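W.,

You were right to be curious about this one. When I first looked at the sequence I had no strong expectations either way, so I just let the prediction run and decided to look at it fresh. Below is the sequence, 552 residues in total, followed by the output.
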Amino acid sequence: MPPIVRRDFLKAAAVLPAALAGLMDVASADTTPTSAKQAKAPSESFDYVIAGAGHNGLVCAAYLAKAGFRVLVLEGDAVIGGGCKTTEPLLPGFKEDLCSSVHGVILNNPLIRDHELDLAQYGYELLYPDVVLHYPFLDGASFTVFRNDVERTAATIEQVSKKDAQTFRRAAAARAGLATMSAEAAANSRDGIYLRRLSEMTGFAASQTVWESPQMRAAALSGGRFFGPMGSDYGTGKQAFSMLDHLKGRPIPKGGSGMLSVALGRFIEAHDGVILTDRPITRLVIENAACKGVECADGTQYRASKGVVSSIHVKHLINMAPQELFGDGVLDGVNLMQPELAMFQFHFAFSEEPEYALASGGTVASVEASLMEDPASIFSLSPDDAHGELNIADYPLQVCHPSVFDKTRVPEGQGLLKIEGCMPYNLKGGPQRWDEIKDQVADAVLTRYLRYTSNLSKDKLLAKFLLSPLDIERMNPSMWRGSAHHFDNRGGNFAPCRMGILGLYQTGACTAPGGSISGLPGRNTAQVVLQDQGLDLKEVVARGASGRRATT
């Protein structure tokens, strides 16, 4: 049987909204195209089975396919990508990212930095918006971050606080100076020591120390939250300078975040790999204490002669084989994993793009906005999470509207936005309470957001698609307890790439260096797998083109 062709998993993206519209039934929704249903391939011979088609699973599969191994990728959803996919859950023509939107971290991965797989020829193109991030406030104040433009950004800060603008300029200059030094010299310099001490504080305390205006303190913490933990926690002090991090730019893929996954899928198929969707995996096939394949929910088994690479959350994976086979060390680590603050996403289609009024006159349109009025509000989420309560009036919100810059994502003249952030997963009465209150909470969040725009109102709303923390987990079980990064990894309690069972490997956000769109866990696991075959990843990459033609 020939490999499943690209159109199969792309066609699945077109029909996915029908399944997502009834999200509670998504696990049983039959949305697979006929051609994909027929492409079972259990009798084919594969070297490796990749369990899960999140972007890290796809990255690992791509390197293995590049090395000449016969690879099968199985995905339980109708669309590949995991947290890196773009579909049309709202209306036809409105391409929305179902989790990640920004692809900044992956730029440091040799996969992209050194063009190891040349994904550009498979459709992955990054765009770099000039207006990176906007911070509006209800009193009319605002800040705007312009890519690689310290002075233009500082000028917006100066309208609120001249002192903060000067501090911002000095901090930018200090960072630039540290970047020219050796690591040892930078660490022992006055600025390096200061930044290290600052980083050990809470983001809140550091922001109180660095900035004069409450608006700048709030902006530092709301934008700093993009990187993971809340600024209420110790060790988050660098969030005081989060605006400087955003100065570097926050690139977005043309056509949506899922274009990374699509490009990887094209690469795999161009190198004789097979990708099958709607194949949820329920069991590992173990023979003589070694992993020899997987079994799907329909009872079909897929065999692997050399190994299985999982991106299934390890909390689920350890229940797919006798637990004693994993070993005590692996099980201890899995048992100690804790969820991070859960994610929510509320998606909206509007009859026009959002705009924000400027105190100096006029408006600005930005790819992202960050909202929080009071810097002390950063403390509200942790106790709410502990008590299962919601006090949502000033939770920090990240608002993504990449169609402002990438017009391929929406019909002409119309707008698209995603409001996301953190809310408790386990409410009083249980997480199922989200099904009762989701619409009410989303309406309150939208009402709050609209007060910051100069042009949007509810009568311009065309459609909505709401994902509570519980829905996030339902949509992607690897987002355990609504954890977009799979678990709280600040303690470094990552799962190993070798999972204790011969022939079983792990990748994805449960492995180092963790979540976000970096592709590094996928590349790291590929390196381990190749080492076990006596191969070196860099040598595999250096072989050059295999002669197979890229599909477009």
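Here's what jumped out at me. The two ends are 21 Å apart (CA to CA). And, maybe more interesting for your project: The longest strand covers residues 343-350.

Coffee later to discuss?

I.
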